[in-house]
Amino acid sequence: MRSPSASPPSTPVVSRTAGSASPPRARAEDLLARPPSNWACAAAQRFHHKRLLDAGVRILDYPTMLHAKAFVRDGEELLLGTCNLDAWSLKRSSELDLQLWSEEPAAQFDERFSAPAEEISKPGRAVSGLKERVLSTAIATISSLL
Q1: Which tops the pLDDT comparison, 10 or 63?
Q2: For 43-58, how does the pLDDT look when each residue is reduced to its tens digit (9 = 90+)?
Q3: Which of 21, 81, 96, 118 has the fewest beta carbons under 10 Å from its own?
Q4: pTM given for the model
Q5: CA 128, 141, 67, 102 torsion-angle sign
Q6: How confident is the model at residue 31 (pLDDT cuts 50, 70, 90)?
Q7: 2-15+25-145 domain in CATH 3.40.50?
Q8: CA 99, 105, 109, 110: dihedral to nearest 10 degrees?
Q9: Hey, is 105 helix, strand or coil?
């Protein structure tokens, strides 16, 4: 899966079942804006980076504001729209997404958006240091209430 909050076909994702020795079933990448527009959301998000990185998800820090909501899956499905993947947007807000099952627009999205964005992004990282770990853990713990 390729997402700009988007994924090259060469990176494994979190899809193993516990205790399974089977290879990952999907590949993923997440492109994140740095600096973030909301420090609390960024702290909660970064809380999960170590687990995602350990599972093989490639995280890229994009150097400026990024507000895209688009996903390419397996080079054949494209999802674009306004919907955030959070409870507020999915259950309370009026959001709209367009889903296309076609290789051509998926390839065009990768070529015109994902590839140039990857070129100027830096690798994401897990939280480090006591202060950053405490902050990200605290914010992630209460994030469902925000």
Answers
A1: 63
A2: 888 888 898 889 888 8
A3: 21
A4: 0.61
A5: positive
A6: low
A7: no
A8: 110
A9: helix
